[in-house]
Design goal:
2 copies of one chain form a homodimer. In chain A, β10 and β11 form a beta hairpin. The termini of chain A are far apart. Chain A has helices at 127-144, 182-198, 202-213, 254-275, 300-303, 319-324, 333-342; strands spanning 3-6, 13-16, 54-57, 68-74, 89-91, 94-98, 102-107, 152-159, 171-177, 217-220, 224-227, 238-242, 280-285, 307-312, 327-329. Chain A has one domain (3-23, 34-342): HIT-like (HIT family, subunit A, 2-Layer Sandwich). Helices cover 26% and strands 22% of the residues of chain A. In chain A, the strands form 2 sheets. Chain A has a 10-stranded antiparallel sheet with strand order 3-4-7-9-8-13-14-12-11-10, sandwiched between helices. In chain A, strands 2-1-6-5 form a 4-stranded antiparallel sheet, with no helix packed on it. β15 (327-329) of chain A pairs parallel with β2 of chain B.
Chain lengths: 345, 345
């Protein structure tokens, strides 16, 4: 079983993932991602994944066979496992617990390769497909939150080799963790401090500021604003913010889902056109499970605001960034905004 | 001039580096690192770098000509510039300041390519060369700390394309920043909290714990311990810790420098042999400038402990890591230790 171990200095939890184990000697001949001769996510190969957790199906198709529009399965090589108890313990001065959690794969569409041999991705989706995906994020997130062992549910997507994707069939992932991850805690703390000082949500303030200046607004519709953040840490970092203040993605309305689907397709058409189909990570940041916790995150309903981060993987981070958390971004977000606004898709 | 911008939520400072600017349209055809036909760091090409700040020279060679053993020059495309005032200001709700700092390159040796066409690196150095480098880190660090505008001096090295290196001639870098970077502040806070609770230094405790268990000790000599940290966030993460408690690398003794030089060469011979010459980042973490600050880092003499981090770049980080700061490490540090101990170099 995997182990969760805590850094004794900065408090970061790390998964030592024994089930996706690399032996030390494996690194001397690093395997590149194989050009997949066989895709376990394509229709007809349903028996090559663990049994499905959820699917949207057409006609009278049956579970774990073809006929699906979207399909959720457990990750075959999970970072965290659903079975077992948390079993927190000390090892000398260190802290650890069992690698309990959930790790699911959302196979976004049956399509994999287009007629021109190019791989399918968000830029190619119909509104219906993208809406399916957003609805599935919501359905799985609501379901996983019922498990009292989990403190956080992260929805994310890795596209392309530079972004850490190991299979090219379009998919997202969900990981449920038994601790609130460090980066999320930092956002929660930052939002809380801002609220204590201003009695306003920091993301609501950011949206007002951005609407006022107009310099970093990439796209918008009636429900969402897309900005290139003022302190973007990498080129083409984008944030999608809902206008309606809500700490929790789970409460997204039908109309918001439709508008979000349309906006995401537009954004990825532009990124693909302007950056020649870049690798990217997409992350959904939402409130932790079961807030407000007694004595903890008391003002979260007012101070936290769910949002989506998009990080194209265009530059490599060196020792300066890793050593300090102090990023050097060679491309001002105002120029990114002008560039993306100029593209017609 | 570059700008320093602060993230309004998590407080991270970012350099928007206009002088090393990529235009948004540059990313659609990402340039690979060119196979350098010409190396500005090789002897004879001294006029292709800005004038040298420091060098160790042999015989009666003159500055900015050949005859050096090690040479320090300003970075030609600096992230931060030495000239000007800090000029902190608000931009609406946001915080920024001018990109003031220093960015120097330490050209570690005149040698670049070996007879077998392989590129030179630490694994190939004599003790004298490695000692020169450590002494130069100390000399430049002590000198840069005299500038009252700087709060932190980071010494680091990027080796190989995966680690963000843009030139292959062996070199390290030093960046002086006008703010204490986020990751360093986390270490300082973590160390302070630990000290308040235990009245002991957390790194001293870690060394005792590791000496006791023996499971994660990769190398040691009379002055230094090399461990694969308990909560390693990437495979083959290594930490070099001095036995003598000291917050500040600047106070390293001659004997310690000699022992550190010898240890570093051994470590890199092993990493190169075991991992087939991997890309890596090396970072020196030391106390910020001019501690104790009134009302700030009061116990730093007792709670902080300088150290070196080595991060081989073997796996790619995906959206999970970026989205949460919660790393999945597929290789237990205990196995890394056994593997490295088994190698004969």
């Amino acid at each position: 079983m995997s182990e969760l171990r805590k850094d004794p200095i900065i408090g970061r939890w790390v998964v030592i993932a024994t089930e996706r184990k690399f032996r030390p000697s494996d690194f001397s001949n690093p395997q590149e991602i194989q050009q997949e001769a066989f895709c376990p996510f394509c229709p007809g190969n349903e028996d090559k994944t663990p049994p499905e957790i959820f699917a949207k199906r057409t006609g009278n198709s049956v579970p774990n066979g073809p006929g699906w529009e979207i399909r959720v399965v457990p990750n075959k090589f999970p970072a965290l496992r659903i079975e077992g108890n948390l079993n927190r313990k000390g090892v000398g001065m260190y802290d650890m617990m069992n690698g309990i959690g959930a790790h699911e794969v959302i196979i976004e569409t049956p399509s994999h390769i287009k007629d021109n041999k190019e791989k399918v991705d968000i830029k190619d989706y119909s509104l219906a497909t993208m809406l399916n995906i957003i609805e599935t994020y919501q359905i799985r997130s609501v379901d996983l939150k019922k498990d009292p062992r989990f403190r956080y549910i992260l929805v994310f997507k890795n596209y392309g080799k530079e972004a850490g994707a190991s299979l090219s069939h379009p998919h997202s992932q969900i990981i449920a963790t038994p601790v609130v991850p460090k980066r999320v805690k930092e956002e929660l703390m930052g939002a809380k401090w801002y609220y204590e000082y201003k009695e306003r949500c920091v993301w609501c303030d950011i949206m007002n500021q951005e609407l006022d200046s107009g310099k970093r607004i990439v796209e918008q519709n009636e429900s969402f604003l897309v900005i290139a953040p003022f302190a973007s840490y990498v080129p083409f970092e984008l944030a999608i913010l809902p206008f309606r203040h809500s700490p929790d993605f789970d409460n997204i309305t039908q109309q918001e889902k439709e508008r979000l689907a349309s906006l995401i397709i537009t954004i990825f058409k532009k990124l693909s056109k302007g950056l020649n189909n870049p690798s990217y990570n997409l992350m959904l940041h939402t409130a932790p499970c079961r807030y407000p916790h007694p004595g903890y995150w008391q003002t979260i309903e007012k101070d936290y605001h769910w949002h989506i981060e998009i990080i194209p993987r265009l530059v490599k981070q060196g020792g300066f960034e890793w050593g300090t958390g102090f990023y050097i971004n060679p491309t001002p977000p105002e120029e990114v905004t002008d560039f993306l606004k100029s593209l017609v898709v």
